[in-house]
Amino acid sequence: MSLPLHVAAGCGGTGRELAPYADLARLAGFVTRTLTLDPRRGSRLRIAESRGGLVRAHQLQNPGVDRFLTHELPWLAQQGVPTWASVTGSTPADIAAVVRRLATAPGLTGIELNLAVDDPASLRLHDASSPRGATEAVRAVLDVLPDNLALHVKLCSDVRRLPAVARAVAEVGCDALVVGGALPAALDNGTPAELSGPAVRPVALRAVRTVRAELPEFPIVGVGGVTTAADVRAFAAAGAGTVQVGSALLHDPSTLARITAELEEQP
Predict the structure, then answer these.
(1) 123, burial (CB in 10 Å: exposed 0-12, middle 13-18, buried 19+)
(2) pLDDT of 68 above 80
(3) Which residues contact 9 (CB under 8 A, 6 or more apart)?
(4) Which residue in 76, 79, 113 sits closest to 221, CA to CA?
(5) 241/218 Cα distance (integer angstroms)
(6) DSSP three-state, residue 223
(7) Contacts of 98 (CB under 8 A, 6+ apart)
(8) How many CB atoms within 10 Å of residue 34?
(9) Are 98 and 92 in contact (CB under 8 A)?
(10) Could you tell me which residues are beta bridge partners of residue 111?
């Protein structure tokens, strides 16, 4: 069984860092780090190893949407890789402003609206943890999104909230839900962070199954702890039609090439 593979948000750098280890043109999709209207410096201590994964406190470090458009997107477009811009903001209007600037840029395939940020208040971001908060952000994006760009919406892995939020977002309108991903954590010094990697895969699989049960026919992108072809098949069995590979690339940037070869050998 073979599924389209995407690079998860924030795990492929600008693309240039990953290019020596993977043929970007063969990827089904490349998701950028999450972009905000203005640049964000992030935290000084950003990543640490943990048993079964990585703890990251990047705090959405990014160059801002304007610099992305001038310094990163043109290079990605030249590689021929379908590119999804991950976006967020402090308010729905702020998110819409980011999307509006991206909307006419050549080389984009779609937008991944990141509603999976833990503790949005501390990061000064819009709180999309409730159906109302999530749909406000989605509607703001849809108001400015041109027809030629697809919209994926990334949701948190909290299975208690997922069914209601997923249904609300799907009913407002998007092309797919991105389900799974990192879990709330902390660095040893207490800095709020996220846990990603193999340790989160069982939780991500449950999240995918939860959304699939709520929305039997809706497209789902699974993400969280994928390191092997067997993991990809597990997400497919849970109900995902597309799979993202994330923090495994930070440990071994050749992971995509290896998984692709494994899937081709035993489809």
Answers:
(1) middle
(2) yes
(3) 31, 32, 33, 34, 86, 112, 114, 154, 246
(4) 113
(5) 10
(6) strand
(7) 35, 36, 37, 65, 87, 88, 89
(8) 25
(9) no
(10) 85, 151
- The residue length of the chain stands at 267
Q: Any idea which residue has 């501390």 for tokens? A: 122
**Can you tell me whether residue 13 is helix, strand or coil?**
coil
Question: Do residues 155 and 166 touch, judged by C-beta distance below 8 A?
Answer: yes
Strand order in the sheet with 192-196: 47-50, 53-56, 192-196, 183-186
The rounded distance, in Å, linking the Cα atoms of 79 and 85 is 15
Query: pTM for this structure?
Result: 0.95
Token reading at 119: 């503790």
Q: Give the Cα separation of 39 and 47 in Å (integer).
A: 20
CA distances 140 to 32, 34, 97, 106, 165, Å, are 20, 17, 9, 22, 16
Nearest to 215 by CA among 199, 239, 250: 239
Q: What is the pLDDT of residue 43?
A: 66
| 22-59 pLDDT, tens digit each | 889 888 999 999 999 999 987 666 788 888 899 988 78
Residue 2: its pLDDT value, please?
61
